Amino acid sequence: MRELFEGALRFQEDDYTKYKDLYESLKKHQEPHTLFISCVDSRVVPNLITNTLPGDLFVVRNMGNIIPPYRENDNMMRAGYLATTASIEYALNILGIKNIIICGHSNCGACSAIYHPDERLENTPYVKKWIELLEPVKKKVQALKPTSKSKQIWLTEQINIEQQLENLMTYPFVEERFDRGEINIYGWYYIIETGEIFNYNMITREFKPINREKK
Ligand SMILES: [Zn+2]
Questions:
Q1: Regarding predicted confidence, which is higher, 120 or 29?
Q2: CA 22 to ligand 1 centroid distance, Å
Q3: Angle, vertex CA 57, rays to CA 54 and CA 60, nearest 5
Q4: Confidence grade of residue 116 (pLDDT, cut at 50, 70, 90)
């Protein structure tokens, strides 16, 4: 823990000083350009992997980068899925953000947990309830009959991103703005061990690595 206190001091001495003007300009308001929805996994660090600064990203994180479907609003209220929904609503309707990125990642614990609900989630009823939202993903993966465990996980993580893009479109204020060309929406798949990010192509329904040639 001492490391974190030491880190807070080092931040004030080094990083804060480096971007002092930026921090001062952010004093009264924020104008983030992008809503970044990612997993809570400690290995996924949004500002680091996008090379962005304070004020750039409005970050929403939860287990498995899940977006509860909007159409089940009444059920959502009861189920307590409000945090994610409220943040998306705020980002779009109050902050007027221009881009949305849903960022999944490799070796995602939430994506693998859906295959072991009984053994691993016995003492975590809230986790169990939350990842029930991944049931449609599990069904889609099982229909593809993956031939190995690693392929199953890899497919789950990617189909999850696709599913959450679909869920995002159930939010009327997202769909309307996307249809009018007012916002951009992306699905990203981040590979922890290589640092690579794969971008989802909504037309070909494929993930392609982000590189300098093709954006
Ligand atoms: Zn994860």
A1: 29
A2: 31
A3: 120
A4: confident
- The rounded Å distance from CA 79 to ligand 1 centre is 21
Q: Say if residues 106 and 193 touch (Cβ distance below 8 Å).
A: yes
Is 0.85 surpassed by the pTM of this model?
yes
- Tell me the HSE value of 46 on the side-chain side, using a 13 A CA sphere: 23
For ligand 1, the distance from its centroid to the CA atom of residue 109, given in whole angstroms, is: 5
Structure confidence at residue 80 (pLDDT): 65
Return the percent helix, strand and coil in the chain, to nearest 5: 50, 15, 35
CA of 106 to the centre of ligand 1 (A): 8
Domains of the chain: 1-30 (no CATH), 31-209 (3.40.1050.10)
